Amino acid sequence: MATPGPDVARDASGQAQQDLRDLLEFDQRREFTRFLMSYKFGIDEMMTKINILKDEFTYIHDYSPIEHVKSRLKSADSVLGKTARKGLPLTLDAIRANIHDIAGIRITCSFIRDAYRISDMLTGQQDITVVAVKDYIAEPKANGYRSLHLIVEVPVFMSDRVESVRVEVQIRTVAMDFWASLEHKIFYKYDKSVPEALLDELRDAADVARHLDVKMEGLHEEVRGPGTTLRVIPD
User: Fold this and answer.
1) Tens of pLDDT along 31-54?
2) Assuming Cys at both sites, which of 48, 91, 123, 167 could form a disulfide with 103, CB separation 3.0 to 4.6 Å?
C-alpha cells in the first residue's frame, strides 16, 4: 500500500483537528442545553410549590390570594447576549453566579396584602433559600414601577447531582401588572426614547393604580375582615 503524501497527511490532520473542535463545540452545546434545562426544572419546582399553596389556601380560607401565574425561561441567545453585555466570561459558573433572571415567575394577586402573604409562604419553606429581596411596593422605582421581587434558590434533583437553581419571582397586584404591561408597550413603541410628558402621565397613572390598590384592599377587608398577616400595607 502506498504511503500518503505530505499534503494528504496534512489534510487528514487538519480534518481531524476540525472534527475535534466540532466535537468539543457539540459537547459544550449539550452541556449548555442541560444547564438551561436545570432552570426549566427550577421553574417546574417553584410552580408546583405555588400551585400547592394556592389550592391549600383556597381550601382552608375559601379564597385564593393568587389570580394567575406566568413563567418564563430565557432563550440561549438571550442568556449569551446578556453575558456578553455584562462582559462576563462564557463559562457556566460565571453565568450561574451573575445572571439571576434566567428563570422567572410572575405571580399576580388581587391585593397588596396578598403579595406579602404569598412571599412569606414561599420564603418560609425549608428548601427555598432567599438570595435577595427588592420591595418596589414599599419603595417604588422613580418611574412609578411597583412590584415585589425575590431571587430564590430551589434544589433540583438531576439524575447524577443536585443543582441549586436561582429563580426570580415577581409578585404584584392586577393594577401593578396592568401598569407595568402598559409601560413596557410604550417603551417598546418609542424605542426607549419616551417623551417626558408621557413619562409624567405614566407616573400619574402609577399613583392612581396605587390608590386603587389601597381602596380595593379596604373594600376587601370590609367584606372578609382583616387579613391574617402582620405586615403593614405601604401608603
Assistant:
1) 888 999 999 999 999 999 999 999
2) 167
Q: pLDDT band at 226, cuts 50/70/90?
A: low
* Catalytic choice (25, 56, 67, 168): 168
Domain 32-173, what fold? Beta Polymerase; domain 2 (3.30.460)
> How far is the first Cα of the chain from the last one, in angstroms, to the nearest whole number?
89
Q: How many CB atoms lie within 10 A of CB 115?
A: 27
Could you give the count of Cα atoms lying within 13 Å of 158 in the half-sphere of its Cβ? Answer: 14
CA distance 47 to 40: 11
Is residue 168 among the annotated active site residues? yes
CA distance 45 to 71: 12
Going from N- to C-terminal start, the domains of the chain cover 32-173
Question: Which tens digits make up the pLDDT trace of 61-100?
Answer: 888 899 999 999 999 889 988 988 999 888 889 999 999 9
